[in-house]
Amino acid sequence: MPLPETMFCAQQIKIPPELPDILKQFTKAAIRTQPRDVLQWAAAYFSALSKGEPLPVKERIEMPLATEKTDAGLTPGLLKILHKQLSPKGMVNVAELKEKWKHLCLPEEQLKTILQLDDFGEEVEWMKVLALGCIVLGGSLLSSMKHACEILTRDPEGGAARVPFETFSFLYSYLASIDGEIPEEKTEAFLHRIKE
Fold it and tell me: I need a labelling partner for 19 at 20 to 30 A (CA). Which of 82, 129, 144, 188 fits?
């Protein structure tokens, strides 16, 4: 038996005063981030909001280049979100990384491929995962370092994308060792030259 249709008047409905702003911010975040699975992403968004954690939100909308597939997976903006969420921990449990990856609606196979590039256990050093993510974005060592600097910089967008030398050195040395074709002496000589 259907329930009787209830009529409400404006005086009967109490809207929490913060609700319109929460929904407005959520809508802006969804438009900027463009998640493939809005419901899954929304659950992650409101969960992070309620816990006071960094939100899974891009700083700006990313338009795919004409050469990219529109459903390519990892983007610099999404990698930057992961960095904001996971970098404070330093070492990250793989299960937590997989959860954050899933919240951004990224392909599970892509993370699996990234984690296979090194010999990781149940805990991973976040900066190494970031570096490997930059390989996925860039392809070459130079392009990967460019992405890493743009993600890590505190400079305004479009600026120099400066990072501390120690961070640059760590990432460059790590990526060169993963590459396997760059002798350690060349890596050290290059880093020594740019430090001066």
Answer: 82
Residue 180, classed as helix, strand or coil, is coil
Q: State both tokens at 40.
A: 């899954």
Asked if residue 36 lies in contact with residue 105, where contact means CB atoms within 8 angstroms, the answer is yes
Q: Summarize pLDDT for 21-39 with one digit per residue, the tens.
A: 999 999 999 998 888 899 9
CA angle 82, 86, 87 (to 5 degrees): 105
Q: H helices within 89-164, ranges in order?
A: 94-103, 108-115, 126-138, 141-152
As given in the structure block, the two tokens for residue 127 are: 């900066």
CA–CA gap between residue 189 and residue 179 (Å, rounded) = 17
Take residue 98 and report the two structure tokens written for it: 């997989």
Mean of pLDDT over the chain: 87
C-beta separation of 94 from 129 below 8 A: no
Distance CA 131, CA 66 (A): 25
Distance CA 92, CA 135 (A): 19
Angle (CA) 94 96 98, round 5° = 70
For helices 165-179 and 126-138, angle between their N-to-C axes, nearest 10 degrees: 60
Q: What is the pTM of this model?
A: 0.79
